[in-house]
Amino acid sequence: MGNDRMGRLQRLGVALLWGVNLALRLWHLGSPSTLVFDEVHYVPFAVDYLQHQAFFDVHPPLGKDLIALGIRVFQLFQSLDPTSDPTAGGAVQVAGMALSPVSFRWLNALLGSLMPVTALWVAWTWAKDISLPRRRCFAVLAGLLTSWDGFSLVESRLGLLHPALVGLGLLALGAWGRSRDALTPWPWRLLAGIALGGAIAVKWNGAGYWLVLVLGEVLTRRPWYRRRLGAADAAPQKVSGRAGLPLALPNQGTNKPRRWLWLGWLPLGVYGLLWVPHLHLVGVGFWPIHHTILNAHLGLTDTHRYQSAWFTWPLMIRPIAYFYQGLGVGETLNLIGPTVPNPDRAVALYGMGNPILWWLSTAAVGMGALQVLRGWWPQRRSLAHIAAALRQGQRLSAPTPRAVTSAAALQRLLIMAYAVNWLPWAIVQRSTFLYHYQPAALIAELILAWQMSGWLTSHRRSWQCWGGGLLALIGASFLFWLPLWMGWPLTVEAMGWRWWLPSWI
Question: Domain tally for the chain?
Answer without folding.
Answer: 1
